[in-house]
Design a protein that fits this description.
With 733 residues, this protein is an all-beta fold. The protein contains one helix and 72 strands.
């Protein structure tokens, strides 16, 4: 605490209450020469040094003093008889300018000597400020008796440059952007931004806000792109410096807004008011996120904020640094009302909030001024719509910090026929069984994790964890649901029977393992659509992730097939004879087919009905065709468009792609950084292959030739690049 109490001669200013003190939280400062008398020495103005290691304060009876952040008095400046109302550091931190009741500007060396004094005005000086590079100094007065209420001085020689009759000015602030030599000032009837031109005249910049009450305070943000103003009614406005348009208006104060200051990151604004409060505002939403009470309701004429904390005034003649805890309300969330009930349960996350000098002891979440939850990770039910929720954290010193998270709850784009309770595996199985019997398309909305712990059924294809799909069923999750095997028993997750249709949308299928049977995650004999979903960590004899049987249809869109294992062919997916496979914008990664005998680490297809558009095959492994293995001699033509095939590794042939037969067109395909131990690092070709607008680069053919392509059939290259391949290009007929 800084208690400034000395025998004083009080000078009552026409617009400033002198019974004012400045508060600094966590800083205990007691001057050695303090004499306890009443009234106390009153502090009227404070400012952080540019590097943040010192504070200067000025007050009644000529007080001007510097402290360090530990509370040690570094300098007491002597010779001022009247109140010091405004102080400012030079940008390099070596000088201090002060002004006040005696109408004199004084320039001080930080180490104590008075460098110069200027008989500057004919009235009380209300505000002094340097421009960003320290080459100019501005001063202003409030009295209409002063012929020149705004003056500009040379910042080095202190010679007068400009004198303007600008009326009664309450405060001034220089734009911190050196490219915009603008000065903002608050007046009794309006405020304006003006521009210095060659340091010899002032030119109106285009902003003049006519107000019905006096403008009192102005403050630029750190890059000078926004200007905040406060008036006698308690209103705060934010202005865009580019076109001087009004960005937003904050209301909440009931009396004069005496001072304004932006947070160091410009996301918050602090305002002090004669209504007895200091408010912290969220700049984007305009909501108050913190309020500090001053029960004496005396104006706080000066506040300042840097990375250490906020300094401001109180009525008990103390100085404190408020070291705020940093609230972090988490990322904004877009949530779907999955059951179309009109509301959704949402988890809030304040776990990244911190306190540099202590511990956060409470978390309060509020909306529209009403606390809706407490704690670090509470769950709340929010209705469909947009919710601006404020997190207020309080530390063990009683200081608070605030942050806002925007939660948007949207009505579902999918209408749920059945909403399955979160994590309820029995309910999921029951819902599938019921949907199978209805004879119409059914959407089951699920959320959470469904742990399958036992076999639901077994047939000629092996054991299944869920009822066999015989109807037309969509499993949909707006927030991402997981169905996984959590058992020592061997079974796949699901099977789609002939005539059945299963759509997975927003679902993860994992850890399925039917032992010696096929299709680790899913076995499909009907129609399977995988949309915005993930098939991962499954294992089987063939088709580690998915086995697509004869005449079945498999559609994979915007999905991931990863980390699946086949002890035979098709580490990720196996599509059998006469099946239909369409893959769009999907990722096949880190899947493995048997390294000794397995074909198609990522994808094995034994059917001409294949189309792949976009997406990538990355870091898959197998004996032949580590990325893709294709084998079909009949029509139609197989197409691959815009596919990335990279970093796959074959123990034999075809690191990227192995084409055994058929007709294949690749257009806009990149095949790179693949490897094969015995030829065809990029492609092993036994098909009628056309490569259009493609790149085959940096592949390794191993101990044999064909680093790019090992060709045994027909190959046409059109606008295609081959480069950087080990063994380069070889053709074998």
């Amino acid at each position: 605490m800084l208690n400034l109490s000395q025998a004083t001669k009080r000078y009552m200013l026409p617009f400033i209450w002198l019974n004012i003190a400045v508060v600094l939280i966590g800083l205990a400062i007691t001057p050695a020469n303090t004499v306890s008398q009443s009234p106390p020495y009153e502090l009227l103005t404070v400012a952080w040094s540019p590097n943040g290691d010192m504070i200067v304060g000025g007050g009644s009876d000529g007080l001007l003093r510097i402290w360090d952040t530990n509370g040690t008095i570094l300098q007491d400046f002597q010779g001022i008889q009247w109140a010091v109302i405004s102080v400012a550091w030079s940008p390099d931190g070596t000088r201090i300018v002060s002004g006040g009741g005696d109408q004199i500007i004084r320039i001080w060396d930080v180490d104590g000597p008075l460098l110069t004094s200027i008989d500057a005005h004919d009235a009380i000086i209300t505000s002094v400020t340097w421009n960003p590079d320290g080459s100019l100094l501005a001063s202003a007065t409030h009295s209409g008796l002063d012929e020149f209420s705004l003056r500009i001085w040379d910042g080095n020689t202190y010679e007068p440059l400009i004198a303007e009759s600008s009326g009664r000015i309450n405060s001034i602030a220089w734009n911190p952007n050196p490219a915009r030599s603008e000065l903002a000032f608050a007046k009794e009837n309006y405020f304006a931004a003006i521009e210095t031109v060659a340091a010899i005249e002032l030119q109106f910049s285009g902003l003049a806000y006519e107000n019905t009450v006096a403008m009192v305070s102005v403050a630029w943000n750190s890059d000078g792109s926004r200007l905040a103003t406060g008036d006698r009614s308690g209103r705060i406005d934010i202005w865009d410096a580019a076109d001087f348009s009004n960005v937003s208006t904050f209301t909440g104060h009931t009396d004069v807004v005496d001072a304004l200051v932006w947070s160091p990151d410009d996301t918050q604004l602090a305002s002090s008011s004669s209504d007895g409060t200091i408010r912290i505002w969220d700049v984007v939403s305009g909501q108050t996120i913190n309020v500090f009470q001053n029960p004496m309701q005396i104006r706080t004429n000066s506040i300042d904020w840097n990375n250490t904390g906020l300094i401001f005034g109180k009525a008990d003649a103390t100085v404190e640094i408020i070291e705020f805890p940093i609230a972090n309300a988490g990322l904004d969330q877009n949530i779907i009302d999955v059951d179309n009930s009109g509301s959704e349960l949402v988890t809030l996350d304040g776990s990244l909030s911190t306190d540099s000098d202590g511990t956060i002891v409470s978390y309060a979440w509020s909306e529209n001024g009403i606390v809706i939850a407490t704690g670090v990770n509470p769950q709340v039910s929010l209705s469909v719509g947009v919710h601006n929720i404020i997190l207020t954290v309080t530390d063990d010193d009683g200081a608070t910090g605030g942050d806002i998270v925007v939660i948007t709850v949207e009505s579902p784009s999918v209408v749920c026929d059945t909403t399955v309770p979160i994590n309820d595996t029995v309910a999921l199985s029951t819902a599938i069984s019921n949907a199978n019997t209805l004879g119409t398309s059914q959407t089951l909305c699920i959320d959470g994790t469904y742990d399958l712990t036992t076999i639901d059924n077994s047939d000629y294809d092996g054991a299944n964890g869920l009822p066999v799909i015989t109807g037309d069923i969509t499993l949909y999750s707006a927030n991402g649901a997981t169905i996984t095997r959590s058992s020592t028993e061997n079974f796949r997750i699901a099977k789609v029977d002939v005539g059945g249709r299963l759509v997975l949308d927003g679902i993860t299928v994992s850890n399925g393992n039917p032992g010696a049977e096929n299709g680790g995650g899913i076995r499909n004999r009907g129609t399977l659509e995988v949309i915005n979903s993930t098939i991962t960590g499954n294992t089987s004899a063939s088709g580690g992730g998915i086995r697509n049987n004869d005449n079945a249809t498999l559609i994979i869109t915007n999905s991931t097939i990863s980390n699946n294992i086949s002890t035979g062919n098709g580490g990720g997916v196996y599509s059998n004879s006469n099946s239909f496979t369409t893959i769009t914008n999907s990722l096949f990664s880190n899947n493995t087919a048997n390294l000794s005998t397995g074909l198609g680490g990522g994808l094995f297809v034994n059917s001409p009905n294949l189309s792949i558009t976009g997406g990538s095959f990355d870091s898959n492994q197998g004996r032949n065709g580590a990325g893709i293995f294709f084998n079909q001699a009949s029509s139609p033509t197989v197409t691959l468009n815009g596919v990335q095939i990279t970093s796959n590794s074959a123990n034999n042939h075809g690191g990227g792609v192995y084409l055994a037969s058929g007709t294949v067109v690749m257009d806009g395909v990149t095949i790179s950084n693949n490897s094969a131990a015995i030829g065809g690092g990029g492609i092993r070709n036994g098909a009628n292959l056309t490569l259009l607008n493609s790149t085959v680069a940096d592949n390794n053919g191993g101990s044999s030739s064909g680093g790019a392509i090992r060709n045994y059939a027909i190959l046409l290259l059109d606008n295609t690049i081959l480069q950087g391949n080990y063994g380069d290009f070889a053709t074998f007929l």
